[in-house]
Sequence to fold (131 residues):
Amino acid sequence: MNRPIRLVVVATMLVLAGSNPASAKAKQFVCTYLKLFEWEKPCLQDAKDFVLKFSVDTVTQKAFLTGNQGVEEVSVVIGDTGILFLEILPTGAVQATTVSNSGSSVHSRHTIIADHLVATQYFGKCISNTD
Fold:
């Protein structure tokens, strides 16, 4: 093996040896929302095919949302009785998802479209990989 390749191999081994992927604890949440409340239609409605998936590394406290728009990193707050995921959009609007330890969940969207606030709340249940 020539010297440059050997150096790359040794450097890679050192990086891998220094990292400890076994210490990472990933937790997954799959949230299904069956009910919806919209500001402009003040009544509870059926939500259709609305599922959000969250992944959390409890060691690094990094979280990711997988939805119909792809994958986004989100802020996470882990509490004693639940967990909160917070996404701040480029418009300044906020989307927040709260999941209780029992799995009950609410997803709130405070969206701004052409200077018009469009507020919605979805109600559902989340299943985690520890359930």
User: Anything to note?
Assistant: The longest helix spans residues 3-18. The longest strand covers residues 41-57.
